[in-house]
Amino acid sequence: MSRLRALIGPSILNADLSQLYDESQKLLSNGADYLHLDVMDGHFVPNLTFGHPLVKCLRSKIKEAFFETHMMVQNPEQWIVPMANAGVNQYTFHIEPVSNVADICRKIKENGMKVGLAIKPGTPVETVERYVDLSDMILIMTVEPGFGGQKFMEDQMTKVKYLREHYPLLDIEVDGGVGPSTINCCARAGANMIVSGTAVIGASDQAATIKLLRSTVQQ
Ligand code: DX5
Ligand code: ZN
User: Fold this and answer.
1) Is the residue at 23 inside a domain?
2) How are strands ordered across the β-sheet holding 35-40?
């Protein structure tokens, strides 16, 4: 783990979205390494959030931060160009609804973004493993995507362990129910990119919480 950086990317899903700029700035000034922006289309998941217009507005005010969009959408190919134009740095999409994963990865790179591949809890790790070489990061979901504040699924750690054993330098992200009480599990399994929503947003001391998450992973 020592050669991989531990990176903490708060999810703004459960923030006060009417104050998104202030909430984002607060997270960044409290030590967030990147922002994890959850995009939901009401089809791939039973919830709706926001799209590229909002991301573009946020980018116009926050020039430097690394933006990852977690695309929980039925047709990820459709939003590559708009999200690139909005200033997204990493485009993470679910492989479950698509048949042309490799084409989508190529298109994301052509548009100047990093590629993240995400799988839901029910999707076997082998399904995503075959695309490792085309991606910059694999996201192992630790809840069913769609909502913040759900319970961490510890059984997903077998996927993280498997990937870490086989790909020592791969960026592996976990997302869903991750916070001070579950970070040990994630760290032991080998995750190095940590998404945390409610645990960070709702923390009385955000900076301390982010620091704790990072130091647990970086040991
Ligand atoms: C769930 C989202 C997550 C979620 C994380 O579908 O992808 O990013 O908002 O929030 P917590 O940490 O509260 O589970
Ligand atoms: Zn997410």
Assistant:
1) yes
2) 7-10, 193-196, 171-175, 137-141, 114-119, 90-94, 67-72, 35-40
